[in-house]
From TrEMBL, chain A:
Its cofactor is FAD. This is Electron transfer flavoprotein alpha subunit apoprotein. Belongs to the ETF alpha-subunit/FixB family. The keyword Electron transport applies. The keyword Transport applies. FAD binds at residues 214, 270-277, 291. Pfam families: ETF, ETF_alpha.
UniProtKB/TrEMBL annotation, chain B:
Coiled coil: none annotated. It comes from Pontibacter ramchanderi. It comes from the Bacteria. This is Electron transfer flavoprotein subunit beta. The lineage of its organism: Bacteria, Pseudomonadati, Bacteroidota, Cytophagia, Cytophagales. Pfam families: ETF (PF01012).
């Protein structure tokens, strides 16, 4: 009986969201009096794998099959199911990414397990219950859910778990082969296109997000958002009206029907804070709102606020950010 | 081409969320229900494909009788017929089992739904249905076109990019923007929807694998600290020294 964590790689490194999943998994293992094993697939250097010891992982299973460098759900499921069987895993932990949640859903069927996605806290285990807290109603509420099957599968919401770092601890790395057949790759993507972030930060993984709304008055003013983001090492985002009128691409739309983010710092410039937008950002640790309307509802959800025109305030913030010691 | 579109009946995006019965139940009092916004993309795209290629669109809801006004709305938008599995949707696993039972019986070429419901945000059902039926599931897709009569080409979002996938029919896909511009019903649609078939079936057994035991709401912020616009640069210092997020 052990805890199995699925870690995703990107450009050779382990994704931050997967380091969070590993930290979550090792804490669950400790509470259950067992050890945590990670299964790694995809584009990740072997040196990065042993370092998962720092997140409390004892052993890493790695399938180096080149065909796994891109995401193919059926093949990934087969590899993880094999690792779960080999480790007699009762708890499986994923990051709540498009990949993690997809693979977790398929494994729930294959392993006859209970699945909770969007999980924000460590499980409470007592009296035979296994209760996790997950975000529901698009950020407007939380639910406590009892996972009743023998096998429990958890997809952990990004930026909701602190990364453990026991410097110097290493995990043992073992090869794993799931004997994948050609047919496991039948639904492999024809083509994968990564966004050109121009050296910037990807929104779903970002710790700081600078976001603009209609108060930016037009796409020609977006250089202010982009410059501040660059100075702070942040990703850029926008409100729904802004993506609807085509000032910014859809993948930057944050809110109830866009993407939900939970960075350490969310800076909203010229966004009034409709309930649907708040739902997408309200689990951010610190929220800054810049709006010329002092009655804008967003100020009620903010930690810091500036009442003023975003086009006049942003240059002052950029100047101050440039003056920071980095 | 036979397309099955699964829809959820969810609180409107403007709803304030409250709970009753010692925080054990969602408070439906005063809440307006709508077709799950993500499902509207799946529904409209299905209708567009039917208009271009022929075939039929069937709407499926796993839910109680109070979902019927929104099922009728889906018929008014352009679906041909509807099925309601008469059951409280206990969890994603339960719902996926019901969809699978209906889908196996109906022999559909395509099973579409939104990427998640805006109430329970599971992002689970589509992949579970694909796995239960042993057919590919492509999620979350923002583009869906037919290459020929038996192959679809989809673009799906991955973190930081997209993948282009081609799959043979039948398959499952979940939809998100900008797949299409969701339609609203016109008067003619509303009139004809009244006479379109809506079949109610009992659930095909099936079990839930999780129990919702309690709800809570996020803690309120303690209040905003305002910084004078003239000294806006002060904010950056506060974010570093006080909030410690820079």
């Amino acid at each position: 009986m052990s805890v199995l964590v699925f870690v995703e790689g990107l450009n050779g490194e382990i994704k931050k969201s997967s380091l969070e999943a590993a930290s979550y998994g090792s804490q669950v293992a400790q509470a259950m009096g067992t050890t945590a094993t990670a299964v790694a697939i995809g584009d990740v250097h072997e040196e990065a794998l042993a370092k998962l010891g720092e997140q409390g992982i004892s052993k890493v299973l790695y399938d180096a099959d080149d065909r796994l460098k891109q995401f193919v759900a059926d093949a990934y499921v087969k590899v993880i199911a094999k690792a779960a069987q080999q480790e007699s895993a009762k708890v499986l932990v994923f990051s709540n990414s498009n990949i993690g949640a997809a693979v977790g859903s398929k494994l729930a069927v294959r392993l006859n397990g209970s699945l909770a996605t969007n999980v924000t806290e460590l499980p409470k285990m007592d009296g035979g219950n296994f209760i996790v807290t997950r975000g529901v109603f698009s950020g407007k509420a939380f639910a406590d859910v009892n996972l009743t099957s023998d096998v429990k599968i958890i997809a952990v919401k990004k930026n909701s778990t602190d990364i453990i770092s026991n410097a110097g601890s290493t995990a043992t790395v073992e090869k794993l082969s799931a004997d994948l057949a050609e047919s496991d790759f039948a639904a492999a993507p024809k083509e994968t296109v990564m966004q050109d972030t121009d050296g910037g930060v990807l929104l779903p993984e970002a710790e700081i997000v600078v976001s603009g709304g209609r108060g930016m008055k037009g796409p020609e003013n977006w250089h202010l958002i982009e410059t501040l983001a660059k100075e702070l090492g942040a990703a850029t985002a926008c409100s729904k009206p802004v993506s609807d009128i085509g000032w910014r691409p859809h993948h930057e739309h944050v809110g109830q029907t866009g993407i939900t983010v939970s960075p350490n710092l969310y800076i909203a410039a010229g966004i009034s804070g409709a309930i649907q937008h708040l739902a997408g950002v309200n689990s951010s640790k610190v929220i800054v709102v810049i709006n010329k309307d002092p009655e804008a509802p967003f100020f009620k959800a903010a930690d810091y606020g500036i009442v003023g025109d975003a086009l006049e305030v942003l240059p002052k913030l950029i100047e101050a950010a440039k003056a920071l010691d980095k | 081409m036979k397309i099955l579109v699964c829809i959820s009946n969810v609180p409107d995006t403007t709803s304030k969320i409250n709970f009753t019965g010692d925080n054990k139940e969602f408070d439906k009092n005063g809440v307006q229900y709508v077709i799950n916004p993500w499902d509207e993309y799946a529904l409209t795209r299905a209708i567009e494909l039917k208009e271009a290629k022929g075939g039929s669109v069937t709407v499926l809801n796993v839910g109680e009788a109070d979902a019927e006004p929104n099922i009728r709305k889906a018929l008014a938008i352009g679906a041909d017929d509807a099925i309601r599995v008469n059951a409280h949707p206990k969890d994603a696993y339960f719902v996926a089992q019901q969809i699978t039972a209906v889908a196996k019986e109906g022999g559909y070429d395509m099973i579409l739904m939104g990427k998640e419901s805006i109430d329970y945000n599971g992002f689970q059902v589509h992949n579970m249905v694909g796995e239960m039926m042993g057919i590919p599931s492509v999620t979350p897709a923002f583009k869906l076109d037919m290459v020929d009569d038996s192959t679809a080409r989809l673009e799906r979002e991955i973190e930081g990019g997209k993948e282009v996938v081609e799959v043979k029919l039948p398959f499952v896909a979940s939809a998100q923007q900008p797949m299409c511009e969701p339609r609203i019903p016109n008067m003619r649609g509303i009139m004809t929807a009244r006479t379109k078939p809506l079949k109610v079936v009992e659930p095909a057994g099936g079990e839930a694998k999780s129990e919702y035991v309690n709800y809570s709401k996020p803690e309120k912020k303690s209040g905003v600290k305002l910084i004078d616009a003239e000294n806006a640069g002060e904010l950056i210092k506060l974010l570093r020294n006080e909030a410690k997020v820079l």
